[in-house]
Write a structure and sequence with these properties.
Pfam families: Glyoxalase
Distance between the termini: 13 Å
Order of helices and strands: EHEEEEHEEE
Strand content: over 45%
Domain VOC: 4-121
Largest sheet: 8 strands, mixed
Number of helices: 2
Protein name: VOC family protein
């Protein structure tokens, strides 16, 4: 079901300063996405790649409503995984599957209260 650790996402109030900091530690920015906020402003996600190509990525984001770290797991089929797990009473679904630029995303809370983001097709 879970195939790999996709990324760890961190909140930052200043995307540019954080990108420069992680670049000074050897990471490379290799993608950036801007998304709208309800206020008409935008927020940014920036993907930072480690020198080891087999490594997961670090994602920096500045959404004021998401001031936390999150762990993302890759699954082949987000909607299928949601359907397979939705009958379980020990999982709280914070967000049901929704489409993104690269596939689908769902957000779940495990019984230990850790929150995980499922990403995939």
């Amino acid at each position: 079901m879970f195939k790999r650790l996709e990324c760890v996402a961190l909140y930052t109030a200043n995307i540019e300063t954080s990108i420069e900091f992680y670049q000074s530690l050897g990471l490379t920015e290799y993608w950036r996405i801007k998304r709208p906020l309800g206020s008409g402003e935008t927020w940014t996600l920036a993907g930072m790649k480690f020198p080891d190509e087999k490594s997961s990525e670090l994602v920096l984001q500045n959404n004021p409503d998401l001031q936390m770290a999150d762990i993302e797991f890759y699954v082949e089929d987000v909607r299928g995984t949601y359907e397979a797990l939705s009958a379980r009473t020990d999982i709280n679904w914070i967000r049901k599957p929704f489409p993104t630029e690269s596939g689908h995303v769902a957000v779940m809370e495990a019984p230990d209260r850790n929150v995980f983001v499922l990403v995939g097709k």
